[in-house]
Amino acid sequence: MFYNNLRLMTVTSFVSPPERLAPAPPLPPERFAPRARRSLWRRAVREAIETIALTLVAFFLIRLAIQNFRIEGASMEPNFHDGQFLIVNKLVYQWGKPERGDVLVFIFPNEPSRDFIKRVIGVPGDRVLVAHGRVQVNGEWLEEPYQPNLGSYSFEPAVVGDGELFVLGDNRNYSSDSHTWGMLPRQNVIGKAWLSYWPPEQVGWVPQYSLASAK
Q: What per-residue confidence (pLDDT) applies to 203?
C-alpha cells in the first residue's frame, strides 16, 4: 500500500498542468480604420440625403398651404402699400368661397405671368354698378369700413356670373381691376391675404371685413 501511494504521488508530481492557450494578439488598428471610415462616410451621406429629402418635402407642403406676395404699386392704398410683404393662405378656399370684403391674390387674367391683389366686391349672382365712385351691390349702396380712396368713374350695371368675382382695388382711380378688364375667373384665385410680415411696422394679421349686408 505504501508502495502504491508513493507511486501515485510520483506519477502525479510529474503530470504537467494543462496548457493554456495564449490569447491571440490584437489586430493592428490600421486593419479596421478603412472599414470604419467607409461606414462613417456612408452614414453621413445617408443622413445628408434624408435631411435634404425631408427639407424638400416640408418646403413643398408649406408651398401648398401658403405663399408670400410682394405688393407692387399703389392700387391698394391706403390699406396696403408698395413694397409690403404678405403671407397668402392658399387653402382657405379649398373648403370655402370668397366673400365680399376678402382681399385676394390672383393670376391676372390678361397677363398670367403677373399676380394681382384686389378686394372682392361682388360674388356670383350679385348685381354690381359704380356711380361716380360709389359702389352699389344688389340695389344697396355699399358701406366700406376699410375706407378706400373712392374713384371718380362709373361702371354700368353687371351681374356676376357663376365662377366669377367682381374685384376692385382700394385706391379706385389707380387700380387695374374689374371696372376696366371685367370679371375675375374664380379659377385664377391663388389665395386670401392673411398676414403682413414686412416692413416691421406693418406686421400683423390682415383685417377681415364682412360686406354681407349687400344682399
A: 97
Asked whether the predicted pLDDT for residue 213 surpasses 70, the reply is no
Contacts of 125 (CB under 8 A, 6+ apart): 159, 160
- Residues contacting 50, CB < 8 A, separation 6+: none
Residue 91 is assigned to a structural domain of this protein:
yes
What CATH number has the domain bearing residue 116?
2.10.109.10
Residue 8 confidence (pLDDT) above 50: no
Number of domains in the chain: 1
Cβ contact 210:197 at 8 Å:
no
Within a domain: 99: yes
The rounded distance, in Å, linking the Cα atoms of 137 and 129 is: 7
Residue recorded with cell 368675382: 165
Instruction: Round to whole Å and give the CA distance between 67 and 119.
Output: 18
Residue 132 covered by a domain: yes
Is pLDDT of 109 > 90?
Answer: yes
Amino acid at 57: V
Catalytic (active-site) positions: 75, 118
